[in-house]
Amino acid sequence: MVAGDADIAPIAALMGEPARAAVLMALIDGRALAASTLAAEAGVAASTLSAHLARLVDGGLVSVEASGRNRYFRITRPEVADALEALARLAPCRPIRSLRQGTHAEAIRRARTCYDHLAGRLGVALLDALVAGNVLRVEEDPGGRPDPVLGAGRSQRYVLTKTGKARLGELGVDVETTARRPLTRYCLDWSEQRPHLAGALGNTLLSRFVDLGWVTRGERRVVQVTDAGRTGLARDLGVAAGDWA
Amino acid sequence: MVAGDADIAPIAALMGEPARAAVLMALIDGRALAASTLAAEAGVAASTLSAHLARLVDGGLVSVEASGRNRYFRITRPEVADALEALARLAPCRPIRSLRQGTHAEAIRRARTCYDHLAGRLGVALLDALVAGNVLRVEEDPGGRPDPVLGAGRSQRYVLTKTGKARLGELGVDVETTARRPLTRYCLDWSEQRPHLAGALGNTLLSRFVDLGWVTRGERRVVQVTDAGRTGLARDLGVAAGDWA
DNA sequence: AGGATACTTCGCTCAATCCCGAAGTGTGAC
DNA sequence: GTCACACTTCGGGATTGAGCGAAGTATCCT
Question: Which domains does chain B have, with CATH numbers?
Fold first, then answer.
């Protein structure tokens, strides 16, 4: 390899180990997670993961923040998430080894949670419906630099419209509650390769849907849409019929 | 890790071995290179590289084309180059071990090819000049989802203007020739961290510059700007003076 | 045909590192 | 103070795979 060329091997090697890859993918949405959570996610012993995390930190991909007896790890900068996304776009989805995994793989593509909001075909259809129904307006962000936290708020912005605020109010969604997080943000859906709604509003909507009994959260991030949800989503939010329920 | 998540580990592992990374970086400009060339590039025995290449092909990152007793390898699709660039943006540049490497490192930052178009300070200056000279117009792309091809065509678009078409025509660049690829596309420059022009137009311009004797392609992706190129680029395209020649 | 070249396959060695459990360190809870 | 908990460090076992050269196959040249 040519000197002066960027040396991608060490970085790629960090991402190329299953446990570390699992950690990074778990952190890709910008959350800070504790070591023990990550160990469970990666399916390895705490001691093993500790070594992996040390290497990720050493490699500059992940940073630590100590809080009491916990240590919270997060991805250091958006370029890391970019690279992970670029790899994910390249990666085949993991092979299906059992019928159960097969139905799970299908289910998770249909509707799942991503961090604290909806994703999969349902998540994408929801965002489409909110835009089509003038609840959200798409704006280009002239500042255009990749945004640090929460996945992929790139140079596009979704803004809640006045009518949108009213419509959501009718649905019992109080838009004012949240202050610290950006209200709207999008997140590139790995299975659909299209954006879905993230941010505080994505979170609030998911909670509200659960409260309304429109969706129920299953195992491993899978989400089921109920009959009430099917009709409610179509009637109140105009979510187009599709293979998301 | 949850089944159904994209499994980036195997792909990243393919890129995470120094010899394979060297091969991929050598192929990142889209050329097809023979196995022996790549072995020299990577600095390993032919037999070793053969195994590496087999794995890259098996992993879908690289494709082979047999031609006589040679086998030519190339990167299968632009998404692979995308991922490599995303990793390169993350990677520290490798330490410089010799004067020769030092000058090369400088040269490659100054002007190089990336895939099939110009990059480095020259590539960035060129795109700036095309925009400043109203050859290309920047548009925000409302369709806004990240675009698969050639680097990072995010939600920004470069559109060829009418005057630009005329200007390029005077330069002997036939803009109509290309149909299958998007005409303009940008690619984030890993050394400059700013976009340079990719896409069919980027390719056509590079070819034309070579035909005009404005630039010559050196070894290892380095590009030299000739005296004619210096004056021509400034006069005909308004490329601002800078440390790119 | 005979030899050179390009590449792959095979057999082997050796180093890296992945993994775990046990023990150690520091913090929070009672 | 004492226990529980979160995490790291250490020691040792097992696996992986990167490396080379030699031999094998296919192609090109003369």
Answer: 8-76 (1.10.10.10), 107-237 (no CATH)
